[in-house]
Amino acid sequence: MSGMDWTTGKLIDDRTQLVQSIRVILSTPRLTRIVRRNFGADIFYLIDQPETQSVDYYRAVASALANLDNFTLDRVAIKRPEPGQIEIEVSGIYTPSGEPLRVGVSV
């Protein structure tokens, strides 16, 4: 299965579609899409919370990506370059080929 690049409109392969999907999921606040209420991540609700622990971000990322059937999450790395910003790097396995996959997202 292939998809469409959301910036160029060109056809992309499955692996590239998965990378794009992960970026869209993690950069979309959960509960903001009317038809797909559970789409997205709770990361945005954690950013400005003073007591937020790293484990809360890990849980939010894992929960957001749990429904991807072609990706197995292995690792989540969180960096906070500035207040109000988060850089997320997820690593895992692209299950159709068994190849490792790493995706970075800035929120």
Structural description of this entry:
This protein is an alpha+beta fold and 107 residues long. The protein has a single domain (3-106), classed as Nuclear Transport Factor 2, Chain: A (Roll). It has three helices and five strands; from the N terminus they run E-E-H-H-H-E-E-E. It has helices spanning 14-26, 43-46, 54-65, and strands spanning 3-4, 11-12, 71-79, 87-94, 99-106. The chain has a three-stranded antiparallel β-sheet, with helices on one face. A two-stranded antiparallel sheet has the order 1-2. The longest helix has 13 residues, at 14-26. The protein starts with a strand and ends with a strand.
Index terms:
3 helices, Nuclear Transport Factor 2, Chain: A, 5 strands, two-stranded antiparallel sheet, 27% helix, alpha+beta, 107 residues
Classify the fold: give the CATH topology: Nuclear Transport Factor 2, Chain: A
**Helix-strand string:** EEHHHEEE
Question: What is the percent of helical residues?
Answer: 25-40%
- Please state the overall shape, judged from the principal axes of the Cα atoms: globular
Strand residues, percent: 25-35%
